Automatic annotation (TrEMBL):
This is RNI-like protein. InterPro entries: LRR_dom_sf. It comes from the Eukaryota. The keyword Transmembrane applies. The lineage of its organism: Eukaryota, Fungi, Dikarya, Basidiomycota, Agaricomycotina. It comes from Auricularia subglabra (strain TFB-10046 / SS5) (White-rot fungus). Keywords: Membrane, Transmembrane, Transmembrane helix. Gene3D superfamilies: Ribonuclease Inhibitor. The chain crosses the membrane at residues 84-110. SUPFAM superfamilies: RNI-like (SSF52047).
Length: 318
């Protein structure tokens, strides 16, 4: 018997209409495995009651993406009416109003969750917590029920989310993949490193555009063997690694000229490659340009030759 699944994208100003459609079409709701709630420039109309009703309509939901809505948390009596037991992937977009307490309240009812993407959680926490500079007692937050394998923090918008120890409290033996992008509070690096010190299986780290030192995070993960960075590892970053580096991805975030990016990377790689005998893959993620690919510069030719001699797979993609 052939199985099928359905992805449902919901604009928040049409959420009530979508809810009515799912209620009247249970066969569609039954096969909906991915639900994405998006927003436009209009006032957000997806409240927590509508949100819970949408999820409750989809008994086989696996992935939930929230990009805009207007509730800061889901009220407890509503959470008790909805099952998140099948959810394995949860993404919170940047344009949201969810507080930290509301965020942990949701994680407490997602025991099967494996992949979490954190785009933004409000720094104010809740209406009673006072200044956003004060760190509330984590004992007041619900305990996550999930054991994560993948955590992606896309951008914390300078809000200072420090609660990585609480977030990963059940993921010490499961977390394998961590991505940290554009975190502008240096103190967050210490919170992340302290939490990672308890995690025993982290294999991959992506560290892009953060204000804290990468080596602090790398040193906290003795099993990491795959890195995604903006430039090849520095001496300090290489020294922080305890396991052999096997995979390296370089991301062009700043340079519009792919040739310059590759040539600059080669200048570092030429010294680093002899000290990374286990390296088997180097990837370049290039900024999209009108031209396809990069011109064959002297640096690129030398890079290709060095990778061929060391049997390193070299790849380029946009």
């Amino acid at each position: 018997m052939r199985c099928c699944s359905y992805q449902l994208n919901v604009l928040f100003d049409r959420s009530a209409v979508t809810l009515e459609f799912l209620s009247n079409n249970p066969s569609v709701a039954q096969i909906t495995t991915r639900l994405a709630i998006y927003g436009q420039a209009k006032p957000n109309k997806c409240d927590d009651e509508t949100f819970v009703a949408l999820v409750a309509c989809c008994p086989n939901l696996r992935a939930l993406h929230l990009r805009r809505w207007n509730f800061t948390s889901v009220r407890p009596h509503l959470l008790s009416q909805c099952s998140f037991l099948t959810l394995t992937s949860f993404f919170i977009g940047a344009q949201s109003m969810l507080t930290v307490a509301g965020f942990f309240g949701l994680l407490a009812v997602m025991p099967a969750l494996k992949r979490l993407g954190l785009g933004r959680v409000e720094g104010g926490y809740d209406s009673d917590s006072g200044s956003g500079e004060e760190r509330p007692d984590e004992e007041k937050f619900a305990t996550p029920a999930c054991s994560l394998t993948h955590l992606v923090v896309s951008d914390d918008w300078n809000i200072g989310f420090w609660h990585y120890g609480h977030l990963l409290s059940r993921s010490h033996d499961t977390l394998e993949h961590l991505e940290l992008h554009w975190i502008f509070d240096d103190s967050v690096g210490d919170a992340v490193a302290d939490a990672l010190a308890r995690c025993t299986r982290v294999r991959h780290l992506t560290l892009i555009g953060n204000d804290f030192a990468n080596e602090r995070i790398i040193a906290a993960c003795p099993t990491v063997c795959s890195l995604e960075l903006v430039v090849p590892p520095s001496d300090a970053e290489a020294a922080a690694m305890r396991a052999p580096l096997r995979s390296l991805e370089l991301v062009n975030c700043y340079v519009n000229d792919p040739e310059s990016f590759i040539d600059a990377a080669w200048e570092r790689l030429r010294e680093r490659l002899p000290m990374a005998p286990a390296l088997s893959m180097i990837g370049f993620r290039l900024m999209r340009t009108r031209r396809s690919g990069a011109r064959e510069t002297e640096g690129l030719r030398k890079l290709r030759k060095a990778c061929k001699e060391r049997r390193i797979l070299l790849s380029f993609h946009g």
